[in-house]
Amino acid sequence: VTHSIAACIGSLMINSKQLDNESPVSIFAVNTCYVTVQDGTFFDGSGFAALVREGYKVRSDVNITLEFRTTAMHGVLLGVSSAKVDAIGLEIVNGKVLFHVNNGAGRITATYEPRGTNSLCDGKWHKLQANKTKHRISLIIDGHLVQTDNPYIQSTSADTNNPIYVGGYPADVKQNCLTSKSSFRGCLRNLMLTKGQQAELFDFSRAFDLRGVFPHSCPGAEH
């Protein structure tokens, strides 16, 4: 076994002596235990998860689905970029969800604006679906569809070759379709990217870089 356990461990005794886990000599990727826990991955607002080290190719079509829960009004959800301008990005800005796509000719954005100012940032689970089909993009939040016109109809492929960054991204990494630098604070689950008939469900514990992200356990409420 080469990966850590997603669990809480307490009252650890060695030779009848209880170990003091309040002041460890060193600590890495260990968080507090929650009184109530839910399925999902907890992002503490300081980092990100990096998936697909060899680079994810969006190209003409991709459908992204995920569920999120947050009380913060800002935060990066997902970004895939290239060294050029081609990129896609999902983010929460001022309580709105923005889906940006640049197929090389210019950035277009679908914006979902909830009726209540903080109704998406209420600590409850919300379902998101972002779809790019050639030059068309759409965003569905909790069943509400938003579409936007794209003046660049000749440009259909986002030629990305960088990893998928979720919940934030490193300071030295360029993201051409994200306006926010704020890391996401809250919980994500059921991240799936679908191309044609091929659906891929991403397990955050298999990310090649995790900072401030705790897979498979989500506090039942903000602690």
Q: Which segments are poorly predicted (pLDDT under 50) over 5 or more consecutive residues?
A: none
* Total helical elements: 0
Q: Which CATH first-tier class would you pick?
A: Mainly Beta
- Proportion in helices: under 10%
What is the H/E string? EEEEEEEEEEEEEEEEE
How many strands, what sense, and barrel or not for the largest sheet?
Answer: 13 strands, antiparallel
Domain module tally: 1
Oligomeric state as shown: single chain
Question: What name does CATH use for the topology?
Answer: Jelly Rolls
Measured by DSSP, the beta-strand proportion falls in 35-45%
The total count of strands amounts to 17
What distance separates the N and C termini?
31 Å
Structural class from helices and strands? mainly beta
Protein name: LAMA1 protein
Domain Laminin G: 38-218
